[in-house]
């Protein structure tokens, strides 16, 4: 009886320790997100200072093809919605729904990156607009490229998480990881809305 009580106490202690460990990791992610906010804030500020310095090169009005940009925006916003559906599936304990929506999110995110890379290649090869052409383009590629890199990292992270979920199922650890990747993805969506408004819309107006 005493042995069973001791075991029960040990299990409760282990569970509390695991919970504290997961909470600490979530807190660490919030710190990372704050540093990312500072990073993007600096890149936006730099772009705003440089965006009129075209050095006789292509201007935003000449470069930006809005139908493609609008398609990118729609795809990324939809992927944020599907990542939310994945979390919803997880909270219901529906493993199939969780993995299914994560896969859809990955496909949408990869489509976004594909369109962005195509946009960059077109600018460099057909418009002669590279990162060294002007201060405006340096600020543009630094800001939009950093966001695209973050999306690419998120995709690799999400694929790794899908494989882990297949192997381990929904545990306290995988649940925390799904919640974090979903939060990260929503954050990238918010950043993109600012990119779309400040860089593209203001650029063509």
From TrEMBL:
The UniProt record lists the Heme-copper oxidase subunit III family profile domain at 1-204
The annotated topology with respect to the bilayer is:
Multi-pass membrane protein
Q: Which CDD domains match?
A: Ubiquinol_oxidase_III (cd02863)
Keyword entries, A-Z: Cell membrane, Electron transport, Membrane, Oxidoreductase, Transmembrane, Transmembrane helix, Transport
**Main location class:** membrane
- Give TM regions: 27-49, 69-91, 98-115, 135-163, 183-203
Localization (cell): Cell membrane
InterPro entries to which the protein is assigned, alphabetical: Cyt_c/ubiquinol_Oxase_su3 (IPR024791), Cyt_c_oxidase-like_su3 (IPR000298), Cyt_c_oxidase_su3-like_sf (IPR035973), Cyt_c_oxidase_su3_a-hlx (IPR013833), Cyt_c_ubiqinol_oxidase_su3 (IPR014206), Ubiquinol_oxase_su3_dom (IPR033946)
The record's subunit annotation is: Heterooctamer of two A chains, two B chains, two C chains and two D chains.
Q: What NCBIfam families does UniProt report for this protein, alphabetically?
A: CyoC
What family does the database annotate? Belongs to the cytochrome c oxidase subunit 3 family.
Stated role: Cytochrome bo(3) ubiquinol terminal oxidase is the component of the aerobic respiratory chain of E.coli that predominates when cells are grown at high aeration. Has proton pump activity across the membrane in addition to electron transfer, pumping 2 protons/electron.
Name listed for the protein in its UniProt record: Cytochrome bo(3) ubiquinol oxidase subunit 3
